[in-house]
Amino acid sequence: MTTEITRRDFLKASGSLLVTVGATGAMQSAFVEEAAAQAATFASPSPETFSSWLTIGKDGKILVFSGKVDHGQGLGTAFRQIVAEELDVPLSRVAILFGDTVLTANQGGARGSTGIRAGGKPIRNIAAEARRVLVSAGAARFGVPFEAMTAQNGVVFVTADPAKRVTYEDLIAVGALTGKLTWNKAIGNDWHGRKR
């Protein structure tokens, strides 16, 4: 079935189309406002918690959360090496989750070398702090000073008595990494002297 439309009918229809577009714009505006209100209640990962940066599973594998993304700069390998070195675990035990805006802290952009320069610092800091907290928890468990402990290959043990040992995952199971972190409010990139 075909219908002929005159120019007058077309212009009338166009006029109503413009009204429709205006109404759609108003509906979109309401939608944006509603979405913004919902976003305001969304709790993004806090840079002040260990779980926003890394987790240690029951199998001893370490998952690191990075707000950066790897565009071929080799961040995956570099971040895994940083974490493996700081926590003294094999590289094979470390995996990285990049750029998931629900699961990772906002670390600013990911241009060029900023991935390592700006993104590597908090990754190294969190891994080093995790090691310190895990060794402290091991020392408390065995009733010895921090200095009497060694961490090696994901195990914390009393240096003078290696039979007194506990794995990272066992320490995690009893809440070793549940405390708050001191955050310097400067996780993102420093562009033109401004922290984001």
Explained architecture:
The chain is of the alpha+beta class and 196 residues long. The protein has helices at 7-41, 75-87, 114-117, 120-142, 168-173; strands at residues 54-56, 62-66, 94-98, 149-152, 155-158, 161-167, 190-191, 194-195. The protein folds into two domains: 1-37; 50-195, Aldehyde oxidase/xanthine dehydrogenase, molybdopterin binding domain (Aldehyde Oxidoreductase, domain 4, 2-Layer Sandwich), CATH 3.30.365. Helix content is 41%, strand content 16%. The protein has a three-stranded mixed beta sheet with strand order 1-2-3. The protein has a three-stranded antiparallel beta sheet with strand order 4-5-6. A two-stranded antiparallel sheet has the order 7-8.
Question: Quick one: biggest sheet?
Answer: 3 strands, mixed
Kindly identify the CATH topology of the largest domain.
Answer: Aldehyde Oxidoreductase, domain 4
Relevant CATH superfamily of the largest domain: Aldehyde oxidase/xanthine dehydrogenase, molybdopterin binding domain
Identify the CATH architecture of the largest domain.
Answer: 2-Layer Sandwich
Helices and strands: which structural class?
A: alpha+beta
